[in-house]
């Protein structure tokens, strides 16, 4: 479709405009301030598309992890075909079977100033609601580029994720009775405890041994993501929000209670084919109980009560993950009885003012078996 010499010829050749709602478009002369858009694209893999107005079209890069908020971390930018100007406000669902199939929404938009525009390096100052600052895009090879923030972080206190060693898991002491005043109480699920790191829509799992109950054998983190593939969608749900979560993976049995044999079978899968088959037969759920990191800020020093409020603010409710309720301490006896009736290991009482740190205070978290 269209003139093969047009800067939009590649864009138009890849699309059937009788099938896709995307604009066919045409080269349009620029007028006024130059505009940009960043679109969140839930295609085969979640990514963000940066498009800069230039020469009557939108010069485009796909960013698998989004626009970097910090100059200490560069992100990959894959140079793609020019898009028409009408794409500045395009949002919608591209049907399956079409190029770029998936949903697309406008993540940020605004104006920009070009400081340099070369064949291998582009420097721009973006003025958007979510992205504001000076960025450079530079080619490494072929269509592979990188994007780097040249300004200091918009959040001056933002830190770079320090790795798993910065998050030693907190454990519970075993007790025979439940404290009431100043505590929250949660079910202990008897699943595979994991720390979950999400950044740029991608998910990593780090296995942790459970506190007072016998564990199924833990797999390595990379293996866990493959074995519990349904949890990957949590990364897409969080998008650019960066978090470390504490929780347990459970698999329900026929009676609706967590099944340790089914969980062990999921953990023991040794091939992608087996993992895929078991994920359909015995779907897993991540029960999220704590928040240890949020958008470049460690939260472990905050009181448990405050961490739970921040966790609730993330609205984590999906097909394979949820944040179970933390009940007031006065409800503890009823919860403990319910745990016994449902075949759960017991409950954990967590002191509302307790920070998250390796166990050095036996009264901070207390596990009471059912």
Strand order of the largest sheet: 1-2-3-4-9-8-7-6
Put simply, the count of helices is 7
What would you call the shape?
Answer: elongated
Q: How would a crystallographer describe the biggest sheet?
A: 8 strands, antiparallel, barrel
Query: Element order, helices and strands?
Result: HEEEEEEEEEEEEEHHEHHEEHEEEHEE
Tally of DSSP β-strands? 21
The CATH homologous superfamily of the largest domain corresponds to: DNA ligase/mRNA capping enzyme
- Helical residue percent band: 10-25%
Which topology of the largest domain does CATH recognise? D-amino Acid Aminotransferase, Chain A, domain 1
**Average pLDDT metric:** 93
Level-1 CATH class name of the largest domain:
Alpha Beta
Number of domains: 2
End-to-end Cα distance? 69 Å
The Rg value, from CA coordinates, equals 24 Å
What is the strand content? 35-45%
CATH architecture of the largest domain: 2-Layer Sandwich
Structural class: alpha+beta
Low-confidence stretches: 210-217
